[in-house]
Design goal:
Layout (H helix, E strand, L loop, with lengths): L5 E5 L4 H12 L3 E6 L2 H13 L4 E6 L8 H12 L4 E4 L7 H6 L1 H29 L2 E6 L12 H21 L4 E8 L19 H13 L4 E4 L3 H10 L2 H4 L5
Parallel strand pairs: 1-2, 1-4, 2-3, 4-5, 5-6, 6-7
Helix pairs in contact: 1-2, 1-7, 5-6
Length: 248
């Protein structure tokens, strides 16, 4: 069991976030939950209190509204007394074919998965840099490691986010602020319900355990499950002259 944390969880109604929040609750942490669906937030908050969370607050917000981010983080800080840990766990897996035909679809994917997250990170980073401590964990994806024809719009958003986090980690290291990039592989969640599942798929509870472990052990980048590090290493090493001919 780790020391009690004050945690801001952005995208709290996602399957991975909910499972991670249960582990935080079991540790007796204080939580401020943010997502769009207020009824779902209340249900999760009530459940987390039963599971041992010392305090659970929540706020219904559209996280793509970047103008609301500064006040949101201020509210979370006031409600919990202070912030020392943030988990950003929201995103969408849009339809690649729609984005190929309509830039507005592609732009929406980029706004949700990259730009809105970067806005939040800007506010959080400045606050944690000032207080000279904190942990920032963000769910990216293995899809950001190399562009594939089947999901390169989503991959581009996650790839941009991964590079941003890399630079942020470099900037904040001297301020004693941890920045951990979480790169899940195939996860069986409502977002992937229409996908055919195979051996490489895992449940959100597996990813949740990996997230908590990564934060507690002060990791920088984690692939979840671990074997995705080796899968993506092989994929990145394939020469472009060969890779462009593959149907991936």
């Amino acid at each position: 069991m780790s020391a009690m944390k004050n945690i801001l969880l952005l995208g709290a109604t996602s399957a991975i976030a909910e499972q991670t929040a249960r582990l935080f609750a079991a540790n007796g942490d204080k939580l401020f939950l943010v997502a769009r669906n207020e009824a779902h937030l209340k249900t999760i908050a009530d459940d987390l209190k039963i599971r041992g969370a010392q305090q659970v607050e929540y706020q219904s917000t559209d996280l793509t509204d970047t103008d609301s981010h500064a006040s949101l983080i201020e509210t979370a800080t006031e409600k919990l007394g202070e912030l020392d840990t943030v988990l950003i766990a929201y995103g969408t897996l849009g339809e690649q074919k729609k984005g190929e035909q309509d830039f507005n679809d592609a732009l929406q994917e980029l706004n949700i998965n990259a730009l809105s997250v970067i806005s939040l990170l800007t506010h959080i980073a400045n606050r944690f840099e000032q207080q000279q401590r904190g942990s920032i964990a963000v769910i990216s994806s293995v899809a950001g490691d190399r562009g594939r024809q089947s999901n390169y719009i989503y991959g581009a958003a996650k790839g941009a986010l991964t590079i941003f986090l890399q630079g942020l980690r470099n900037r904040l290291h001297k301020s004693n602020v941890q920045v951990v990039t979480i790169k899940p592989g195939f996860v069986d969640t409502p977002m992937t319900s229409e996908f055919k599942k195979g051996l490489l798929w895992v449940g959100p509870e597996v990813i949740a355990r990996g997230i908590v472990k990564a934060i507690n052990k002060q990791k920088d980048v984690v692939y979840l499950p671990f074997f995705w590090r080796y899968i993506m290493l092989i994929i990145r090493l394939i020469p472009e002259s060969i890779f462009k001919k593959l149907s991936l």
